[in-house]
Specification:
Elements: E1 2-8, E2 14-19, H1 26-49, E3 61-67, E4 71-77, E5 83-89, H2 90-93, H3 98-117, H4 130-141
Antiparallel strand pairs: 1-2, 1-5, 3-4, 4-5
Helix pairs in contact: 3-4
């Protein structure tokens, strides 16, 4: 199950953050947010290390960013440098396939595209869309 999810803009400011940690358990929430933040360095490293011009159909899914004792972090970068990071519990990470992960990222990317296509959305502001939230809820529930 996904335990945290972040959508980060090209300037590394959060557009959307979500954890499943209980509000009373601030330590877990802080740990998850810290991991999301530190994963941005890995995302930047992977994006910058890709060779430009070599098969311009670069894969948007970065795969595993890094793994810890309890969690695996996965990344995705859009063509406009919007970053999506998902943290999955390690026991669950073994159970799902690469296709499932790509499906999650594609659904989030599509939901984000719908949000920014809304003429009332101001670019760079926090995402507060009910439709986007429904997609996130569905992904966070999947096991």
């Amino acid at each position: 199950m996904a335990v945290a999810l972040a959508l980060i803009n090209k300037d590394n400011s959060p557009l959307y953050l979500r954890t499943v940690a209980e509000p009373a358990n601030g330590e877990v929430a802080h740990k998850l947010l810290y991991m999301l933040h530190t994963s941005l360095d890995v995302v930047e490293e992977k994006v910058n290390s890709s060779v430009p011009g070599k098969n311009d159909s670069r894969d948007l899914c970065l795969g595993v960013l890094y793994s810890l004792d309890e969690y695996k972090l996965y990344g995705y970068v859009t063509n406009t440098k919007i970053k999506i990071v998902i943290i999955v519990e390690l026991g669950v990470a073994v159970q799902f396939r690469d296709n499932d992960l790509r499906n999650w990222f594609n659904r989030l990317h599509q939901a984000y595209t719908e949000v920014i296509s809304n003429p009332f959305y101001v670019a760079g502001e926090e995402i507060k869309s009910k439709k986007f939230e429904a997609v996130v809820n569905d992904i966070m529930r999947k096991q």
